[in-house]
Amino acid sequence: MPHEDPINPEGGVEWLRADGPQTDVVMSSRIRLARNLESFPFLTKATPDERQRIVAIAREQTLAAALADQMIWVDLRETPKLERNLLVERHLISKQHAKGDAPRAVAVSSPDERLAIMVNEEDHLRIQVMRSGLDLQEVFQQISEVDDKLEKRMDFAFSSRFGFLTACPTNVGTGIRVSVMLHLPGLKLSGELEKVRRAAKSMSLAVRGFYGEGSDAVGDFYQLSNQTTLGKTEEQILEEFEGKMLPKVIDYERHARKKLLAERRKLIEDRVHRALGTLRHARLLAANESLQLLGYLRLGVAAGLIKDVPLQTVNRLILLTQPAHLQRALQKELDQAKRRVERADLVRAQLAG
Amino acid sequence: MPHEDPINPEGGVEWLRADGPQTDVVMSSRIRLARNLESFPFLTKATPDERQRIVAIAREQTLAAALADQMIWVDLRETPKLERNLLVERHLISKQHAKGDAPRAVAVSSPDERLAIMVNEEDHLRIQVMRSGLDLQEVFQQISEVDDKLEKRMDFAFSSRFGFLTACPTNVGTGIRVSVMLHLPGLKLSGELEKVRRAAKSMSLAVRGFYGEGSDAVGDFYQLSNQTTLGKTEEQILEEFEGKMLPKVIDYERHARKKLLAERRKLIEDRVHRALGTLRHARLLAANESLQLLGYLRLGVAAGLIKDVPLQTVNRLILLTQPAHLQRALQKELDQAKRRVERADLVRAQLAG
Question: Which residue among A23, A71, A298, B236 sits deepest, i.e. has the most Cβ atoms within 10 Å of its Cβ?
Answer without folding.
Answer: A298
